[in-house]
Amino acid sequence: MVEAKPAPTLLARLAPWFRLAVTAGILGFLAGKVNWPQLGHRFLSAQPGWLAAALFLTLVSILLCGVRFWFLLRLQKIHLSLFRALHLTLVGFFFNLFLIGSTGGDAIRLYYLIRWFPDRKARSALAILLDRVFGVAVLLGLALLLLPATAPRLAQDPSFAPIAQAIPWLGPTAATLLILAFVIPGLLPNLPLPAHLPGRTVILDLLHALRDTMHGGWTTVGTVIVSVAVHLFSFAAATLLARSLGLPIHYPLAGLILLLVFSAAALPISVSGHGVREGVMVFLFIHLGISQDAESAIAYSLLIYGMGLFWSLFGGLAYLTLKSPPTK
């Protein structure tokens, strides 16, 4: 007898509608504030040379995401070729375009990994999760390194004064967390788990997998280096994009803006961050002294999203050609 699935809660049923309402509300508010002819002029005034360079660097960043994913799979003893890891990464980016939330592509990647490696279900899920964790952790770490260069601009506005005051404490805090991130996983497999704990075998496998990830020698080092490169190229693309629009955004400021915008867009309150991303960009432009007109902020935000969207569309072609790896 198949056990019936529990009925979704009221909150679960209302969550998609809440996201749609928030997205529509923010976009509607911004639409009423925007000077549409001026917004069109901002797009048309973008210098194509800098725009093309930013588009290329975005592609490099996306491909490096695939390399990072390949390293993490190797750390989980999942033997997928680099080509197929890149292939699956592009497919994940494609599905992120129209599945609600920013994790739809992760679900697709996990589906194929479990289909290809049914004996590695737990480690496949961990590889997907760690791909996110490494990306976010390195983004935060780089932002901490770049913050001192933006401190004078942050201190000028009361909204960011607490961040500017906290900068001296951020370095030691980040160093402590980094040390713990490498020490704790080595201790996890030795935890005294009860012998009759449900799922004990799976839990132990995951604990060993975490240790393997953080103590994987040169593969772990490669994962960290590639994770750093992903964001360095992303920051460079955002800097060149600002130059194409004639915006006074230097490299450290571009990194800070991406961190704040991506963090806000990742909150589960809108459809794939639409509306929230543009609203936060307008706020940052005003309070960081970049530009007082919403059109510049929205043009910059849409072009950043558009560069990722352009390359993600190629993930549709990748999906059509996605096949199971040959069995050994």
Describe how the helices and strands are arranged.
Layout: H1 10-33, H2 36-44, H3 48-75, H4 82-95, H5 104-116, H6 121-155, H7 161-187, H8 200-214, H9 218-244, H10 251-265, H11 276-287, H12 294-320
Helix pairs in contact: 2-12, 3-4, 3-6, 3-9, 4-5, 4-12, 5-6, 6-7, 6-9, 6-10, 7-8, 9-10, 10-11, 11-12
Summarize the structure.
This protein is mainly alpha-helical and 328 residues long. It has helices at residues 10-33, 36-44, 48-75, 82-95, 104-116, 121-155, 161-187, 200-214, 218-244, 251-265, 276-287, 294-320.
Protein described:
α2 crosses α12 (294-320). The protein has 328 residues and is an all-alpha fold. The radius of gyration is 22 Å and the shape is globular. The protein has one domain (60-320). It contains twelve helices and no strands.
Question: What are the key terms here?
Answer:
328 residues, mainly alpha, 12 helices, 75% helix, 0% strand
Task: State the helicity in percent bands.
Answer: over 70%
User: What is the first-to-last residue Cα distance?
Assistant: 37 Å
How many independent structural domains? 1
The rounded Rg comes to 22 Å
The profile of the biggest β sheet is: none
Quick check: average pLDDT?
82
